[in-house]
Specification:
By secondary structure, the protein is mainly alpha-helical. It folds into three domains: about 80 residues, no CATH class; about 160 residues, no CATH class; about 45 residues. About 65% of the residues lie in helices and about 0% in strands. Helix 2 packs across helix 4 and helix 3 crosses helix 7. The radius of gyration is 26 Å and the shape is globular. The two termini are about 20 Å apart.
């Protein structure tokens, strides 16, 4: 599918007359793949899908029919492909199941506090991808799908490569995952303290964080009371707020009964789940230093000013509507990532 899109794109931009016709029938620009950019293939397909009506109007127009050029076979292939309903259905199918993956990766790529959410997000995303693929292939849950198994293998490898014990600990400290509301949404769900993998990774963190056996035992007792809603955590407000309040606020209000665990929770629940947003500073540093050949100290100061201007811009009303949104070092709006692929 991507090869077809690239072929059509190259055919259109390969001649000024065809490109002129394209610009006449569409108000949007096409996007090309940029291998070093995030999900540029999916972004390109999304934009190509938005161009469907304009492309079909172009190849059915009198201008296209009257235009004479030497590559007739390629022109026929482009016309035949763009008029195929089945071909466009495949594009839609690709965009539907990749949108779930794209959304999770976008949330991972920001400076938002998602360390305590990412574990469950990946599990839910893989299950939702399975549902879409099985529905498309008209298979029941017990049947085998070679395509889904191949895709699942890629996703699991990606998660295994990037996950750490801290992801599991942060997940275990999110009160929402112990609430009856969340557990009852799916019969397959289990509270974190009942999951073997989460328990093993959580214990690894506790052993590394607390060298003293007595302190670690006290933390285990605090965690037991928290996870089972015992003793002071059995308070009606504490149990009800597990699904109603965000995790960090809940620990601020109700975590006083587990002081040691509360300190850890407040640190983890305010953390992003990856360091990818920090890489933008490295790119800024490289651009400033390479263009101006300044000393490292002066370049560092300029990066500091630039990054903090971006952060301060979030308080401005122009952050979402004006040009300032392009400054953001960790934009959460998915639509902005469409700008990462170059125009035709």
């Amino acid at each position: 599918m991507v090869d077809d899109v690239i072929f059509i794109k190259n055919f259109i931009v390969g001649h000024s007359m065809r490109l002129s016709m394209f610009n006449t029938f569409t108000s949007l620009k096409g996007l090309s793949i940029a291998p070093t950019k995030f999900a540029s293939t999916i972004v390109m397909l999304k934009r190509f899908r938005s161009l469907k009506e304009g492309l079909q109007e172009m190849i059915l127009s009198d201008e296209w029919s009257s235009y004479k050029e030497d590559n007739v076979d390629s022109a026929q292939f482009v016309k035949k492909t763009l008029l195929k309903d089945n071909w466009w259905m495949k594009v839609d199918y690709i965009l539907i199941f990749t949108a779930l993956i794209y959304d999770v990766l976008i949330k991972t790529d920001t400076d938002m506090a998602t360390l305590h959410l990412i574990y469950e997000m990946w599990d839910s995303m893989i299950e939702n991808v399975r549902k879409i693929i099985y529905q498309h292939e008209r298979k029941t849950k017990v049947e085998h799908s070679s395509f889904f198994e191949a895709l699942k293998s890629i996703l699991v490898d990606h998660w295994t490569k990037g996950s750490t014990s801290l992801h599991c600990l942060a997940h275990s400290l999110n009160p929402r995952y112990y609430s009856h509301e969340w557990l009852n949404e799916d019969s397959q769900r289990r509270a974190p303290h009942q999951d073997v993998e989460l328990t093993q990774e959580r214990n690894k963190c506790f052993k590394r964080y607390f060298d003293d056996v007595d302190v670690r035992r006290q933390v285990d007792i605090e965690f037991a009371n928290f996870s089972e809603g015992m003793k002071d955590f059995a308070d009606e407000d504490s149990l009800r707020d597990r699904d109603k309040m965000d995790a960090k606020s809940w620990w601020i209000v109700h975590g006083v009964y587990a002081p040691t665990l509360q300190k850890i929770a407040l640190k983890l629940l305010g953390q992003p789940c990856s360091s990818s947003c920090c890489k933008r500073n490295w790119s800024t540093y490289s651009s400033i230093h390479s263009l101006n050949k300044m000393t490292p100290k002066r370049t560092e100061d300029l990066v500091f000013v630039h990054s903090n201007l971006c952060l301060l811009s979030k308080n401005s009303s122009k952050h979402k509507d004006g040009e300032i949104k392009l400054w953001n070092i960790a934009e959460d709006d998915i639509s902005l990532h469409d700008n990462e692929a170059p125009d035709w």
